[in-house]
Amino acid sequence: MLTILLPFLLLQGCNGVIYKFNSSAYYHMPALYSLDEYERCLSDAGGTFCLIDLDLFSDQPSELMRYIHEYSADTKKHFNHTQIHRGVCVTQSCSFLNYSVWDLNTTLEACVNDTIWRNYKVQARLNNINYCYNADDRGGLDTSDLAVIIIYMILIAVNVVGSLYDVLFCHPSSKSGNPYVLSFSLRRNWAKLVSPAGIGPDPRLERLKSFQGLRALTMACVIFSHVALAMGHSYLRNPDFIEKSLEDPSKQILLNGNLVTHTFFVMSAFLLAYNFQ
Ligand SMILES: *[C@@H]1O[C@H](CO)[C@@H](O)[C@H](O)[C@H]1NC(C)=O
Ligand SMILES: *[C@@H]1O[C@H](CO)[C@@H](O)[C@H](O)[C@H]1NC(C)=O
Ligand SMILES: *[C@@H]1O[C@H](CO)[C@@H](O)[C@H](O)[C@H]1NC(C)=O
Ligand SMILES: *[C@@H]1O[C@H](CO)[C@@H](O)[C@H](O)[C@H]1NC(C)=O
Ligand SMILES: *[C@@H]1O[C@H](CO)[C@@H](O)[C@H](O)[C@H]1NC(C)=O
C-alpha cells in the first residue's frame, strides 16, 4: 500500500505549491492585514472607517501573483494571501479621491487599489465590506450590548439573592436550605474556593491531590493556548510568525494542545464522578 502511495506523497511537494518560507520573497507580497488608526479617524467630523476584504489579481502575467497563488496554495500552514484585509479611514487615507461624487464601494476599491498598484503592480478588487462606522452615528447601545448587560444583570441578581438567602436563613455549616439557590451564595462559593484540596472526611481525597494539581496546570495551558488561538485569528501585524510557528518543534506542543484538553476533560469528569459517589 505504501509503495503505491509514496510516489503521490512525494509528487504533492512539487505541484505548484510553495511550502517553504522565504523571507526575501515573503516581504515582497502586499501585507495581509493593515489597519488605519480607528480612534483618530472617528475623531474627525464625518470620519468614516471601513473594514474590507479585497482580492488581488493581475491582468498581465505577474511573477508576484504567481508566487502569491503558490504560497497560498499550502492551505494547511499558510494564510490565503490572495485576499488582503484592510481597515481604511476613508476620509483620511482616500482623501485624494472624489469621495463625495463616487459611491463608497468605488472609493474603497480605488483607494486600496491605488496603493497596491503603485507598490506592487498588481490590482485589488473589492470582495466584501465587513462594516463601516461613521463618526456621526457612533455611540448608543446596540442589541448585542443590551444582551450582555441583561445577562450580567441576571447573574448579579441571582448572586445577590443567593447570598442574602444564605446569610439570612441558613447556618454556614448546616446542609439545610435550597441547594440550587445556595449554589449562587458568595459566602459558600468563596469558602469552597479557598478550602485546601485533599482535606475532608474521606481519607482517599488525599491521594487525589496530585490530580487537582495537574488539573490546575492544564487549566493554565488551556487558557494560554486559547489566547494564542484568538491572536492567530485577529488582524496581525506579523502573520508570518503564525505561519512559521507551524514548522517550529517547540510550538508543536501548543498546536497539538487539543490532546491536553482531552486529558483535562477525563480528569475533571473523574473528579466530578468521585465527588458524586
Ligand atoms: C527566495 O526567493 C528569492 C526571490 O524569489 C530567490 O531569489 C531566492 O533564491 C530564494 N531563496 C531561497 C533560500 O529559496
Ligand atoms: C483565497 O481566497 C480567494 C478569494 O476569497 C479564493 O478565491 C481562493 O480560492 C482562496 N485560495 C485558497 C488556496 O484557498
Ligand atoms: C471631483 O468632482 C468634482 C465634481 O464632479 C470635480 O469638479 C472635480 O474636478 C473632481 N476632482 C477630482 C480630483 O477628480
Ligand atoms: C487599479 O489601478 C490601476 C492603476 O491606476 C488601474 O489601471 C486598474 O484598472 C485599477 N484596478 C481596479 C480593479 O480598480
Ligand atoms: C457594495 O458592495 C456590497 C458588497 O460588498 C454590495 O452588496 C453592494 O450592492 C455594493 N453597492 C454598490 C452601490 O455597488
From TrEMBL:
Annotated PANTHER family: ACYLTRANSFERASE 3 DOMAIN-CONTAINING PROTEIN-RELATED (PTHR11161:SF22), O-ACYLTRANSFERASE (PTHR11161)
Parts of the chain that traverse the membrane: 146-168, 214-233, 253-274
Keyword annotations of the record: Membrane, Signal, Transmembrane, Transmembrane helix
Protein name (record): Similar to CG9447
Signal peptide: 1-16
Organism name: Papilio xuthus
